[in-house]
Amino acid sequence: MSKSLRAVAVFTALFFITADAGWALEQDRKLDETFLLLMAARNAAKTKQYEQSISRYYRLLERDPKFTDARAELGWVLLVAGKPGEARKQFEAVLESKPRDAEALKGLLEVLKKSGEKDDAFTVLERLVMVLPEDRDLRMQLAVELHNRGRYAEAEKHLNILLPKDKNK
């Protein structure tokens, strides 16, 4: 191999190595910024600076619209900040891509309860019990709701799961 051909090969290899390293550094920087935005949004929410938190969550979601955990967290902050309509949109967006996301379902349930949409809340509660069958509180809420709606046989099934087994039978 001639010296000039060898020099071209070395230069080309160095170019790709440094270009790849630059790409990796850029990815690390983006991850660091994403992590910082998430931490900052959570921190602002914990200190009840809801507007600041909401702004940071929106910035984060502009960077990564598929970050469903952050979207669900935003939903909760919006709900606490008194923006149930916006919160609902965030929870529903999560559920479009992850229909069994328990946090988004819980958030949507809370929004629906607060807005007085009892039938829709009941439907979401049923979904939640299917997603989290071991959650006794949710199952109890469903049993009570079924009972209040006159659906006693269905309520009985849930009550039988909740009650300890009768040792005399």
Structure explained in plain terms:
The chain has 169 residues and is mostly helical. The chain has a domain at 3-100: Serine Threonine Protein Phosphatase 5, Tetratricopeptide repeat (Alpha Horseshoe). It has 8 helices and no strands. It has helices at residues 3-46, 50-63, 68-80, 84-97, 102-114, 118-131, 136-148, 152-162. Helix 4 (84-97) runs antiparallel to helix 5 (102-114) and helix 6 (118-131) runs antiparallel to helix 7 (136-148). The radius of gyration is 25 Å and the shape is elongated.
Write the layout of secondary structure elements.
Blueprint: H1 3-46, H2 50-63, H3 68-80, H4 84-97, H5 102-114, H6 118-131, H7 136-148, H8 152-162
Helix pairs in contact: 1-2, 2-3, 3-4, 3-5, 4-5, 5-6, 6-7, 7-8
Write a brief caption for the model.
With 169 residues, the protein is mainly alpha-helical.
Helix and strand element order: HHHHHHHH
Largest sheet: none
Shape: elongated
**For this structure, what is the CATH class of the domain at 3-100?**
Mainly Alpha
What Rg, in angstroms, do the CA atoms define? 25 Å
The residue-averaged pLDDT reads 88
Termini distance? 90 Å
CATH topology descriptor of the domain at 3-100: Serine Threonine Protein Phosphatase 5, Tetratricopeptide repeat
Number of helices: 8
Overall structural class, as computed from helix and strand content, comes to mainly alpha
Quaternary: single chain
Helical amount: over 70%
Return residue spans where pLDDT drops below 50 for at least 5 consecutive residues.
Answer: none
Kindly report the name of the CATH homologous superfamily of the domain at 3-100: Tetratricopeptide repeat domain
The CATH level-2 architecture of the domain at 3-100 is identified as: Alpha Horseshoe
The count of strands amounts to 0
Report strand %: under 5%
